[in-house]
Amino acid sequence: MKWYEKANFYQMYPIGMCGVPKYNNYGETTYRLQELEGWTDHLKSIGMNAVYIGPLFESDSHGYDTTDYKLIDRRLGDNQSFINMVHKYHEAGIKVVVDGVFNHTGRNFFAFKDIQQNGSHSRYKDWYRGINFNSKSPYNDNFSYEGWNGCYELVKLNLQNHEVKNYLLDVIQYWVDTFNIDGIRLDCADVLDFEFMKQMRTLSNQISDDFWLMGEVIHGDYVQWANDSMLHSVTNYEMHKGLYSSHNDYNYFEIAHSAKRQFNTVDGVYKNCCLYNFVDNHDVDRLASKLINQNHIYNVHTLLYTLPGIPSIYYGSEWGITGKKEGPNDDFLRPTVNINNVRMENPELMRYIRALSDVRNLHKALVSGNYQELFVANKQYAYTRFTCDNTVIVALNADNSPQLINIPLQTLNKSFSNLKHIFGQGSNWSINYNQLQVTIPACQSIIFELN
Predict the structure, then answer these.
(1) How much is the average pLDDT of 285-306?
(2) Nearest CA-CA partner of 423 in 364, 353, 319
């Protein structure tokens, strides 16, 4: 089993976390990455063994407008400070995955600046999409070009150009050789060139048989990207939506439908994929701001850690911090957080996440087990994850009062004499006629093990 299949991920957005100036004036280097080294003990304390961190490389502003792929952003530090950080995390048993922003660059990237200076005579004029010297850009350049999603500060690279592809593959090799990273999260993977991603997979296989490629994909059939010839995993936005909205609507049928469609043992469309699950991230509202009933925050995390896939926590959300987008402004999703002076809106949630990490780490079925639905109603839901030698049963109650549910177990074809309760409050349960009869407290969940 690969390390990433067993990983509990923690997402860091360093430009926000460290409170850097919003715009890069390309002045003196300020060493802030050391602050993130100070998060090591906290990460271990909540059971994290991997971080996805980024964007990190020199940029004009928010990090996704890259100006130099081979330099750490001077607002965060320098290359040596990131080398030191990776080394410290590795010593603590924490893998490090960085953001790969390969769909576009910033306007101060060397190739774009060369086009600004040399126009149609630039050797880099074919490095970007839609370059047209017969019209002007919104920035009044003497040429026009394609910007990502209408954002012209993000200039779209031409990933069908062999020089561009070779340059970016060289960047990846440089990151591995220089920083000793363990994988890359690909920004905007859903619009990247497929052949380029296949070349990336070939390179990753040469680097290591467990170097991980994960892509940001919002819509579409995930196996287009997550397969044996391209990426190892993609972001599971379908699951993300169901995790919170099934609670807001008191409709566990929604998340049960997604789980069954994606991972059912017989016909799940992604049953052979290990997708990247999350409840929030740097692009979407914080979970605590999305939930109508804050008591549901625990069950959401139970689902995150026990449904198939790789769980990820976005920095600060383990304390229940809030944050909502305001139009195109993402700043409220990406606040400064000082690990030595944290305001914990919900310290109990952090302890809950630690306990879930322990349960997942100790039970093979929750990492690699098959999925099977056992029971679903609007406010209650139960399912099993199982391997040949380990079976786990998860039961949830979203109601505001305790509820007795009867979970049919006959399809498991096992003896239930050694069933034991391993997580959650409440011990009022029994086995009767191949049914698990259990009373689940309000807005809580219970996990059982059967070997």
Answers:
(1) 98
(2) 353
